[in-house]
Hints:
Elements: H1 2-16, H2 21-69, H3 73-97, E1 107-108, E2 113-114, H4 120-133, H5 141-159, H6 164-180, H7 185-206, H8 209-219, H9 230-241, H10 253-256, H11 268-301, H12 305-329, H13 347-365
Antiparallel strand pairs: 1-2
Amino acid sequence: MRDFLRWLADMAGRLVRTLDWPLCLALAGLMAFGLAVLYSAGGPTGGAALVKAQGARFAVGLLAMWALSRVSVIRLRVWSPTVYALSLLPLLAVLLVGTGKHGRHWLNLGVFYLQPSELLKIALPMMVAWYLHSRPLPPRIPTVLATGVLIAVPTGLILLQPDFGTAMLIASSGVFALLLAGLPWWWVGIGVGGVAAIAPVAWLWLLRPYQKDRILTFLDPERDPLGTGWNIIQSKIAIGSGGLTGKGWGEGSQSHLNYIPEQTTDFAFAVLSEEFGWIGVATMLALYLFVIGRCLWIAMEARDGYSRLLAGSLGMAFFVYVLVNGGMVSGLLPVVGVPMPLVSYGGTSAVSLLAGLGLVMAVRTHRPVHAFH
């Protein structure tokens, strides 16, 4: 019996040896926050169903994280171009047969809905890291331009859906890989200048009416307090009313009286702020900072260029997700429909984020003996 238990413990140890336990514990804390917020936001009738559905998605995401953590970095590097190319196909398909509220964002696969743009949260960092790792660093102008094309193709397809928020997040992961590779910051200045230059053109011919309304509402929410400004005004009231300790779990008036729209998805952070207060928000942000810092530490400890760029870009992309959602819910950024990672309700988003962190764990576990430049 003792030998059997020893064998069982050894097998269990082998199965989980590739997981990064500090990272896993921080993720568990964030998922617990998310399930608590969803249960409260869903109310006495719908909360349990939301928790059950999101819990199942977390299980799928954790399984993907565990599976990817066991893949060697060398194999990930070899697979990167194929993963990138295959991820572009659903983006093309969604433009033809997709569905969505303000365009075509989802593919109906019968059993579930797939948001193809979420696949690029993994595929694009892999591809950019693959392309940059074997080239002289810091990257030269031809390398930067070629990397820009790799970033622009999926970003452009996502903008056609249209989904500006996700396109921005996807593009940021590729840009962070370039910056981590040593891209001079004056290139960022050129990019910002280029965006500013085409802004009038985008306003006149590219942006849709609802996107213009979001920008105008960001600049002046009071211009239409009962219409387009309602979301952000009520969200700010909820955040401010939470105070230091919050109103208590399940006691948020703004959320339970349905003043906050999209309270289980885009504005879940407002529910958390109202019910758990500054202490709850600070705890959640501390967990986010730990996850991001852990990813960057793993990137710093990596032995080859591909691993450093992959883990670093995934960690910094995670930072952008938190920054954008927190900014839009608190009125510091326009509302662009970006969920709070692992707290907002959403299947494809949760699975893709956990899968991406599985790649980071693979970088920590499977370190190539030889460094590649």
